[in-house]
Design the sequence.
């Protein structure tokens, strides 16, 4: 593994930081999340036109930049520093890998160029509150999490050659504004029970989308209701390995989220260090107190360790390994929660107010853990996949005696 970034990657970081710093101040972020879309459409257009960000990990064949998970993670780290609301994560980290892995040639040729150009955003709709389960981040995703029978969820039925969906999905990231929904639905009845993915266009009759009040305003969520909605099957039903595709997308999503959390934690730490250098108590800056130095030093070490984990996960994903994303996400969410908590504490009374940005970072940490964690389950799943605690059955005493003889 080469830990150094290439000149192209450093240029992506530099250009994106300049743009985000100019367009994503505290006031701009709060104004953007209160728009109907939940993000600044002008900024999204600039990211698409100037940097090709929506298509950074899409092959050049489909109009993308042709980079990989490392560049996508690096871009997300910069957006995470400002908590810039955008449909990048929902579109590029969740939906694009599914389209690339499961979509037919016609589906990829139609959808990926539009996504790469920034003209089409997408969202993954998973029934209930099981997004982390569906992505294989906290456990096996081979169960009936998509619903079935009387379990609710989303049901798919084939009638006269047309697929129709019924049901409801909660906590759909950017689901209220996405032009394309990829919906996980249960089909096949009891005999051939399985989960497949379907494409639903924003203009589909019977589709009802409602933006929900969420803990983290910078990551908007929606409730999606499907009332006899016509849908298109993603890929081929006979050959589709939906659990495998979702698990692969989950590793990419976890890697991107980890980098995003590292960027947010790093910025929260920077702002706290700036503040403790200026805030005076007993005639001296509080940053000069040894107790404050120790607390911030601990945060710095934790953030750097999380950054190393996120970068390694991005490199591993680019090399074809899908094992490191969940563990990197656990490390990064821990770092963000610690950095945000210290930011609130060391900013004193102002840190507890809604007007200050410290609470935005704390909400991001809490919301991401609720959506994609908790942290201890992310670590447990990573340990399970790595077979760290495989039980070894001891031989029977009689067999031991026979072997000795």
Sequence:
């Amino acid at each position: 593994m080469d830990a150094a970034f290439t000149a192209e990657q450093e240029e992506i970081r530099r250009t994106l930081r300049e743009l985000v710093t100019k367009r994503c101040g505290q006031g701009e972020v709060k104004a953007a999340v209160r728009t109907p879309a939940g993000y600044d459409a002008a900024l999204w257009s600039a990211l698409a036109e100037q940097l090709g960000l929506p298509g950074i990990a899409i092959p050049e064949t489909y109009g993308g930049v042709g980079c990989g998970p490392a560049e996508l993670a690096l871009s997300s780290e910069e957006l995470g520093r400002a908590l810039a609301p955008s449909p990048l994560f929902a579109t590029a980290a969740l939906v694009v890998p599914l389209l690339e892995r499961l979509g037919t040639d016609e589906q990829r040729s139609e959808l990926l160029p539009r996504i790469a150009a920034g003209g089409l955003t997408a969202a993954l709709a998973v029934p209930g509150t099981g997004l982390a389960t569906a992505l294989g981040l906290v456990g096996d995703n081979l169960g009936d999490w998509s619903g079935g029978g009387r379990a609710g969820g989303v049901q798919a039925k084939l009638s006269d050659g047309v697929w129709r969906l019924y049901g409801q999905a909660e906590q759909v990231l950017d689901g209220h504004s996405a032009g394309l929904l990829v919906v996980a639905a249960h089909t096949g009845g009891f005999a051939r029970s399985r989960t497949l993915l379907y494409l639903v266009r924003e203009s589909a009759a019977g589709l009802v989308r409602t933006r929900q009040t969420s803990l983290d305003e910078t990551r908007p969520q929606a409730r999606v209701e499907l009332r006899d909605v016509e849908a298109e099957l993603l890929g081929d039903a006979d050959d589709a390995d939906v659990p495998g595709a979702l698990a692969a997308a989950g590793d990419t999503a976890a890697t991107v989220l980890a980098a995003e959390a590292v960027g947010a934690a790093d910025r929260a730490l920077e702002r706290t260090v700036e503040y403790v250098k200026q805030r005076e108590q007993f005639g001296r800056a509080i940053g000069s107190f040894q107790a404050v130095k120790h607390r911030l030093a601990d945060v710095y070490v934790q953030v750097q360790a999380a950054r190393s984990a996120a970068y390694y996960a991005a490199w591993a994903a680019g090399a074809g390994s899908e094992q490191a994303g969940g563990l990197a996400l656990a490390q990064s969410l821990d770092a963000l929660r610690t950095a945000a908590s210290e930011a609130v504490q060391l900013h004193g009374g102002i840190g507890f107010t809604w007007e200050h940005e410290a609470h935005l970072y704390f909400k991001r940490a809490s919301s991401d853990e609720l959506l994609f964690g908790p942290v201890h389950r992310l670590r447990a799943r990573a340990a399970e996949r790595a077979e760290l605690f495989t039980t070894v059955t001891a031989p029977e005493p009689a067999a031991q005696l026979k072997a000795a003889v």
